[in-house]
Known about the structure:
Elements (H helix, E strand, L loop, with lengths): L6 E18 L5 E20 L4 E6 L12 H10 L8 E7 L9 H16 L6 H11 L3 H6 L2 E6 L3 E4 L7 E7 L6 H12 L12 H9 L2 H7 L1 E2 L2 H7 L3 H10 L4 E4 L6 E5 L2 H14 L4 E7 L5 E4 L3
Parallel strand pairs: 1-8, 3-4
Antiparallel strand pairs: 1-2, 1-12, 2-4, 2-5, 5-6, 7-10, 7-11, 9-10
Helix pairs in contact: 1-2, 1-3, 2-3, 5-8, 6-7
The site of adenosine-5'-triphosphate has 22 residues, from helix 1 and helix 2.
Amino acid sequence: MTIVTGVTVRVPAKLNLQLAVGPPRADGYHDLVTVFHAVSLFDEITAEPARRDGVSVSGEGADRVPADGDNLALRAVSALRAEVPSAPGVHITIAKRIPVAAGLAGGSGDAAAALVACNELWAGGFGPPQLAEIAARVGSDVAFALLGGTAVGRGRGEQLTSALAPATQYHWVLAFADGHLSTPAVYAALDRQRAREQVPAEPGLDAALMSALRSGDARLVGRALSNDLQPAALSLFPALRKTLAAGLELGALGALVSGSGPTCVFLAASADRALDLAASLSGAGVCRSVARASGPAPGAAIISGAR
Ligand code: ATP
């Protein structure tokens, strides 16, 4: 028998290449149609046996992450334990590189990583469909963090279909903002903005974006990026307008606020262009810091400790 003492899992940040938001439902949530895209900016989480469940967090934005049962990784542990009642305690260590409350779903990613790590540590034997079901109970973006790649999400984002795209790698520049946005606050701002508008009952998938992804042409993808939450995010964080404009002026093929923001993302024509754009953006003083990432990246994957 193999004894596994610790399992480390790497999980990517996500962008939304399209985020179409329907009107609020009776339960307050919004139906979405979104095109998720995982990029190579990763958190790492390690699960080790412990007497009681616990979590410690280090790295980017760690002081803003709860170190108790509210941590999404520990919520995922509880959801998996409901299926494996004999499972012992576990300590989760999170090394964050994905900024917190930045519209990059880092918390959901940590939850997905915890599911994968504990499934391995406890020899749970759950396959991808079962893990995806448990993930959907933990949060809307968790199932996508398991899957990775590029995928269409519906419902609250948890009903996923992989988008079969050519092997194109896209080169992104991420501009991290000096500040945060709360996802519920951005949705509330959108509802206020839309109070006097006619909102389509059902959000729809953008055919132009899907055809651009099928063609693998970054120029077309750049032109088709869209986010219904962007006006709401900009109303709460007006400085982002300058960030978006600066990136476009510096030659990005497309620019948008990621999810509920405030991270702004820019598509570059090549790895070299992304390097130039990142350097120029960091010199322009329109954001706190800049990173480069490529996508699609794989979903949550064990990097050490597998049996
Ligand atoms: P969303 O997934 O709603 O778009 P986001 O990507 O903007 O959110 P996250 O970094 O996922 O932001 O964090 C959202 C909130 O979740 C934060 O306020 C944070 O305190 C809380 N949170 C709980 N667990 C975690 C975790 N492991 N990592 C990051 N944030 C966490």
